[in-house]
Amino acid sequence: MKQSIINRFNKAQYYLLLIAFIFLFKTEHSKAQKHVILIIADDLGVDYCGFQEGFADTISLPNLRSLVSRGIVFNNAMSNPLCSPTRAGIYTGRYSFRTGVGDVVTSPTASVALDTSEMCISKILGLADSVIKKAQFGKWHLQAGTPSNLLNPNYMGYDKYAGNFSGALTSFYDWTKITDGISSTSNTYATSEVTNDAIAWIQEQNALSSYFVWLGYNAPHTPYHLPPTELITTTGLSGTVNDINTHPIPYFKASMEALDHELGRLFDSLRVINELENTDFIFIGDNGNGLRVSQIADSSRAKGTIYQYGVHVPMIISGPSVISPGRASDALVNTVDLFATINELMGVNNWNQFISQERPVDSKSIVPILRNEIDSIRPWSFTELFKVVSDSADGKAIRNKEYKLIRFDYGAEELYKVNGDQMELTNLLASSLDAASQWNYNYLCNELNNLVGSGPECPVITSLSDDEHLHESTIYPNPADEYFNLISDHTKQAIILSISGHACETILLKNGINNITAKQLHDGIYIVLDEDGKAQKLIVNHSSEK
Questions:
Q1: Average pLDDT over the chain, rounded to whole?
Q2: CA–centroid distance for 76 within its chain
Q3: Half-sphere exposure of 388 (CA within 13 A, CB side)
Q4: Domain covering 467-540, topology
Q5: Where in the chain is the domain with CATH 2.60.40.10?
Q6: Are 177 and 193 in contact (CB under 8 A)?
Q7: Mean pLDDT for the stretch of residues 515-539
């Protein structure tokens, strides 16, 4: 009898331990689950997005605003000026001059296309963790839609692909859909169809699986159209071809409102399966607004140009990875940075081990900003444009917080103080530069040359006699020997420049007192230039007596 009681007790202990183990395993696995959904609105610039600093509300976007409340709005996000180059940069984390995609991919024959040998996000996630599932729905636009290419999304690492290969749909109500290599005709409104496919696929996933979903919406790209009435609050639009051609902006707005409505449906579906709070969302536009709907910039400054309104895009990152949500960041970020960011959000911190050193990656993770650890990740941001048939718009642009240098392929250069001149109307190079502008030009000129491996010789600063343009020094001791201290009011990057304007070293400044080594610097005069445009003189004088 006694032994029977002991046996029953031992069995009870065993089952309790088993249940506890299973619960612990599920809990720990649940903690490891990571979901990331990237949402791209095609041809949406900042001037329609009231959640971006400095821009008024022009479209009702309540569901996007719900992301803002749980995330971060990035005020200085830079893309490429066209669809395909931006997408190639996100996939690979590499600038256009490295991928070769500087123009849009055309169909059915493409002289521009992303090489399928590139190591992209979907490939890396699959190599890093077989539990991670990957899917893309909507616009592909990286290779031409020929029969031999229709399985390319799957070859490039996706478990599921359903969408269109073309840059623009012939109609949002009658379009060619590719599903895992099989072509068919869809008569479902494209924005809804993409959302339907995403919801269905997510609901099919194992409860223990992590997943990455790329949602490449065609909206609000052309053709402008009247969305289904149940998706919009806009009234009074006839939807006739003549009205659309004559007044495209109301239809552009309606298309974006319909997209926001469908995002709300996606969010609701995630809420039902208790995954909304487990999912990080990234929302961006892929370039500035098209010429016909641009509200601020004219044809020389909108989509297809490397001016601000061609490359300044809305960006929101929202979800559980964001510490202290509901804030805005002035950090310089680039759409190529989403490559490293998505990998890390999915738990793949060692993504660089899957990439050959022969293929440099330009992406910098935004995750430290999300975690409120630092205020910035890069001292400058870069973009470029090079078309199959070159024209005067082709060129390169590099900017820091204050200044932007544009170098056109035909040889001309322009310099703008972008914080006070968003339209880039005052070319500082058209007149004599003050000391601060000259130092910023020298820095950006040298950084651009170093990046692309060529460029004109950058002018040098021959004198520091114009000291009134220098900021009040927060450097001590000055002159410095082996070390110096620099006081900063927030986390940011800075550059130590030689007297000639050449970059000697990049340093990361934290809020407060920063102790910085000067051992590597030769005796002489330097400029410490931070990303806010603050320039300070530093004198290095190593003592001969030790």
A1: 89
A2: 10
A3: 10
A4: Immunoglobulin-like (2.60.40)
A5: 467-540
A6: yes
A7: 86
Helix (H) or strand (E) segment spanning residue 450: helix 435-452
CATH 3.40.720.10 positions along the chain are: 35-373
CA dist 207 and 225 (Å) reads 38
pLDDT tens digits, 194-219: 999 999 999 999 888 899 999 999 99
For residue 515, what are its two tokens?
């102790």
Tokens linked to 121: 């996000």
Of how many residues is the chain composed?
546
Q: Are strands 535-540 and 524-530 parallel, antiparallel or unpaired?
A: antiparallel
Local structure of residue 304 (DSSP, 8 states): T
Model pLDDT for residues 260-295, shown as the tens digit of each residue: 999 999 999 999 999 999 999 999 999 999 999 999
Between CA 399 and CA 406 the distance in angstroms is: 9
CA–CA distances in Å: residue 218 to residues 44, 223, 542:
10, 9, 60
Q: Above 90 in pLDDT, residue 109?
A: no
Token pair of 196 as six digits: 């339907």
Side-chain half-sphere exposure of 346, counting CA atoms within 13 A: 32
Residues 6+ apart with CB under 8 A from 225: 171, 172, 173, 239, 244, 251, 255
DSSP annotation of 374 reads -
**Contact present, 201 and 135 (Cβ < 8 Å):** yes
CATH H-level superfamily of 35-373: Alkaline Phosphatase, subunit A (3.40.720.10)
> 181-189, long-range: CB within 8 Å, 24+ apart, which pairs?
181/150, 181/151, 181/154, 182/150, 183/147, 183/150, 189/227, 189/228, 189/231, 189/258
Q: CA of 101: how far to CAs of 82, 295, 309, 388, in Å?
A: 10, 28, 21, 10
Distances (CA, A) of 465 to 260, 460, 461, 537, 540: 56, 14, 10, 11, 18
304: left (phi over 0), alpha (psi -120 to 50) or beta: left
Closest of 478, 529, 486 to residue 509, by C-alpha:
486
Q: Are 72 and 296 in contact (CB under 8 A)?
A: no
